[in-house]
């Protein structure tokens, strides 16, 4: 084991394997769950050497490295959560690899992630600004560049809302939580009041995109989580959360502030998409991604809520 402090014991049979910090492109937390005759994992991290080494080192440290791997449940098909399968699948050789049905296309064909990240929209908006190179961006090349490459993953079981995944003494209900990824899932054990949250709640607020459920989908996902009787949240990025209601409130407050910035800007007159995007995102690189899909998500929600309208690519208050 590189460092025993990377293995956090949630319970005797449930361990959190945590990277040094929560910020992208640092890989997601990985969870091990042990039962009488094997172990299962929730996410596997990315394929960079440090992440793969941490997962294998933790199995070795716990003495669980010789146990058969029964289930690998993937919260969603993003490289910081599933990219590690590229290397780890041959070591772990799981009986079942499980993903929500909506994210199956991205596990099969990773280049399709360009669509769920709304990269065509980013390119289109970039071209509107007169940048001829806007079409050159490819999300898979970007993942490679930040040392968190995506890979295709062979899924042999898909799940959907309310399905039950039994692992040892845990009976997890699948909570479909889109917004950040269309097939994003969280797992909830009612008896233990325990939520494996994925990216929907954690130390960082993830980006959102219309093609991944948008802001409206994200808010509905948070409402579902808020309605659960939760004692402990195990997030994919950051430390264990005890007060989930407070975290959810903080996330919604952040979303409302972004809505308010758009409304406030429109009080002084009509604005273009780019003017509004620049209000929410100061840096040009962020204006491209995740700015474009996040700003578009807010505009779509405000139009749906009948607070603003758009005419000839200009946004107005109603
Ligand atoms: Zn993600
Ligand atoms: Zn993530």
Layout of helices and strands, plus pairs?
Blueprint: E1 7-11, E2 14-17, E3 30-35, E4 38-42, H1 49-62, E5 69-73, H2 79-82, H3 85-92, E6 96-100, H4 104-108, H5 113-116, H6 119-128, H7 139-145, E7 157-159, E8 164-167, E9 170-176, E10 185-189, E11 194-198, H8 214-226, E12 232-235, H9 244-266, E13 271-272, H10 273-280, H11 284-304, E14 308-311, E15 314-317
Parallel strand pairs: 4-5, 5-6, 6-7, 11-12
Antiparallel strand pairs: 1-2, 2-3, 3-4, 8-9, 9-10, 10-11, 13-15, 14-15
Helix pairs in contact: 6-11, 8-9, 10-11
Bound molecules: zinc ion (2 copies).
Question: What is the mean predicted local confidence, pLDDT?
Answer: 95
The largest beta-sheet arranges its strands as: 1-2-3-4-5-6-7
Strand content: 15-25%
- The DSSP helix count reads 11
Distance between the termini: 59 Å
Identify the overall geometry.
globular
Helix share, percent: 25-40%
Number of separate strands: 15
